[in-house]
Design brief:
Two copies of one chain form a homodimer. In chain A, strands 8-7-9-10-11-15-16 form a seven-stranded mixed beta sheet. In chain A, helix 3 packs across helix 12 and helix 12 packs across helix 13. By secondary structure, chain A is α/β, with parallel strands linked by helices. In chain A, a hairpin with a 4-residue loop joins strand 12 and strand 13. Chain A starts with 6 loop residues before the first helix and ends in a 5-residue tail after the last strand. Chain A has 13 helices and 16 strands. Chain A has two domains: 221 residues, 3-Layer(aba) Sandwich (Rossmann fold), CATH 3.40.50.2300; 144 residues, 3-Layer(aba) Sandwich (Rossmann fold).
């Protein structure tokens, strides 16, 4: 076990502020492994199970657990999942990855669900040469200059360009308004990609306004939108702010199409937004009408039976992170981290739950994106965009 | 005036949460301009004058003010500086840039001094097509996919690689330890560049530990460093944490060379660190022994006469942001934003205070970096690295 040769070498590698490695636990782990009683393959999971991003973390974890019941073994050995809560905090995300690697001796890691958590955790996993697969982090930077970091979702460059394309070509919009959450790099980055892509197609950005996460009143931004008379309004923000802004837009009588992004595909958007988010269009990861692979059908049935509800995009991406990782270990015929890493980078046409997934050596997934719309209180599929066709 | 054609069009462009445009002020501005009484060229400055990053903001602003006394006119018109405080907050940085453009009608902007402030402000300046020059922000992402954003300092890719090169070649180090502030993308990014560059030269990273901004105790990280027996310790962190870590390292008897980065070249490092930072090496922007251009000599004399002290790197980079911008306006022979932007992108061999500055169309400065060392309570120049030579 490369990262746990002895208690002595563990101490030389890294000791953490705020936690003490328990030698007793390590000793027990070594003994059971040595005696062959436990031949499980340990996979770490680090997610925001509590705190501000817990909506995403809880959903991803439930998705992984159901995937594990479908595929509980690999290389004829049981897979053991070890969960660490990042509490939606950067430092806790770093701690979680460190613990999973050093104390739990995991072979690979799934997580995190958000940009901040993934940036912190990826630094540690990458240096430790432990493969990591993020289910849902779309920020382009997380895989940049990293060897061991992968994702099973598309990134924001693809997402922002697809939104601009849809606005310009499908909606026929020539004038766009954009409302940005200046406190979120996610929103600032997506808006920038959208605006450049929209203008490069010949469109004009006629209004460009800002707010800050947890703002309640969008009246002034929306009045600026009204005065600019756009053909489309782009709001690449999280679900709480989108729900509020849609409500206030409806009150003001704004009736241009509104496009948002993957962060809104949660049942909380529908609960918060009600009638006011009817008609909202967004770029998303998944629609169950597209779940045509055998694994997708099997998974969705299992999920419904196990939980009594339908799987959403975050559950499904959690499952795909797990399935892609298990597939890589199977192909690697090994639990050595370098071999798992190489196999992940050769993932080609994997028939996952959210679609067919190919991963490049840069760690990024090449896969379809779906345009969805809120209709009668549910998410309806509009169209699918293939990155190869564009 | 492109951005202020009428009160009506101003309202259509963008109205801000939290401030109301004063039509009286606008009217006065329009009237005085129309009557020709005020032919000044207005430049906006947005900096963290208060809050956690005020050390940097105050220094940069003082540097700009002295530069303005040396070169108070351009195109035979007086230059008027308008300052906005970002309070070291992202949203306030966005507000500041918005105000400078919409209310003050500035022709170009200097700022911000930190990554967070610059990312927020750059989004607005870029969309508004108002050229912006950051004096000190080294994060690679701020100019990425932006047309109107420039900087007069090097970026962290160059800085991290130079540190690895120095460690490997000049110090002859083969084993490096790294201590990272996981809460700062600046530190995580620099550490990643350093480690990859050090390993690509044949070195090994033998210890890689973390802390979080404002942590007080580095004992466990430093014990891990000691146990790993490195030849060099890299700490790309801000001055407060570096001063504390150096103090504790000395107490523990660690005597390997320590390398840090541009964030430590402040008098506060020397005050906080005292004898314990003696010997600290770092990559920096400026040393006065290298101030050989006529402008540099003139500026440093002026600065000393005006303030009674020597200019440091943050003052000097503030001055260079101003001088480079004035030079571009002069060459543009115009205050039109598109022409200033084009002239900035053609900055070639400008003999500034911090060195000779060339700016590419990607907005980044190509310029020298200096290795400095703390000796007898002062910063001493060790060597200079030219990006072309490497």
């Amino acid at each position: 076990m490369e990262t746990l040769q002895s208690a002595g070498s563990l101490m030389t590698r890294k000791v953490f502020n705020g936690f003490l490695v328990s030698f007793i636990i390590i000793c027990v782990a070594l003994c059971t492994t040595a005696s062959g009683e436990d031949n499980s393959i340990k996979l770490g999971i680090y997610l925001p199970m509590s705190g501000s991003s817990s909506v995403y973390g809880q959903a991803v974890y439930q998705g992984i657990k159901v995937a594990h019941t479908i595929r509980p073994t690999v290389l004829n050995r049981p897979v053991e999942l070890i969960l660490a809560d990042t509490m939606s905090k950067k430092m806790e995300a770093a701690n979680a990855v460190e613990m999973l690697i050093k104390t739990d001796n995991v072979r690979a890691i799934i997580g995190e669900a958000t940009t901040n958590g993934t940036i912190a955790g990826a630094a540690i996993a990458d240096w430790s040469k432990i493969p990591m697969v993020s289910p849902t982090t779309t920020n382009p930077h997380i895989t940049h200059n990293r060897t061991y970091i992968f994702r099973v979702c598309f990134n924001d460059t693809f997402q922002g360009e697809a939104a601009a394309d849809y606005a310009y070509k499908t909606l026929g919009a020539r004038k766009a308004a954009v409302i940005i959450d200046i406190a979120q790099d996610y929103s600032v980055g997506l808006a920038n990609v959208f605006e450049r892509a929209f203008m490069s197609r010949g469109g004009r950005v006629v209004s460009h306004t800002y707010f800050q996460t947890s703002d309640q009143d969008f009246t002034m931004q929306l009045q600026a939108v009204m005065a600019a008379k756009p053909d489309v309004l782009y709001m690449p923000n999280y679900f709480r702010e989108v729900a509020k802004a849609c409500r206030q837009a409806k009150k003001l009588g704004i009736n241009v199409p509104i496009i948002s992004a993957d962060g809104v595909q949660t049942k909380e958007l529908l609960e918060l937004g009600g009638d006011d988010v009817e008609g909202l269009i967004f770029t998303g990861h998944f629609d169950k009408s597209l779940a045509v692979t055998p694994l997708a059908r099997q998974y969705l049935n299992h999920f419904a039976a196990a939980t009594g509800k339908d799987a959403g995009p975050y559950e499904v991406l959690g499952a795909d992170a797990y399935f892609v990782l298990i597939d890589a270990i199977e192909r690697a015929k090994s639990v050595r981290s370098t071999k798992i890493r190489s196999a992940l980078a050769l993932t080609n046409g994997f028939k996952g739950v959210s679609g067919v997934i190919t991963i490049g050596s840069d760690g990024n997934a090449v896969k379809n994106l779906v345009f969805m719309q809120v209709k009668e209180g549910t998410f309806q599929h509009l169209t699918t965009v293939n990155p190869i066709d564009r």
